[in-house]
What we know:
Layout: H1 3-16, E1 18-21, E2 24-27, H2 34-41, H3 51-60, E3 62-65, E4 70-73, H4 74-77, H5 80-92
Antiparallel strand pairs: 1-2, 3-4
Amino acid sequence: MTSESIEKLAAAIAEEVYIDIAKWHLYLGEAHLHTVLAEKFYPMLADGINADAVDRVLGSTMVKVGGGKRELPLNDLVPTQAQSALLDVLRNFED
């Protein structure tokens, strides 16, 4: 696992994937969540990735909201369309 590869994957995630709050799209790069996800997904790429794996990783990635009053799983915040975009990024990623 190289940091350069993770950074490249993180950049791809940052550009394509967003959370949706009241129809406001906050891209994961702006939310500083892209690198965390790249670190989780990169080791999984060699074995292939599917929608269930994406949902599991997003579900296990907790995001603090309201100044830390609450934590929500990322899959509750990333709409289906953005999850599909994430799956496409992961499937098409070339190291």
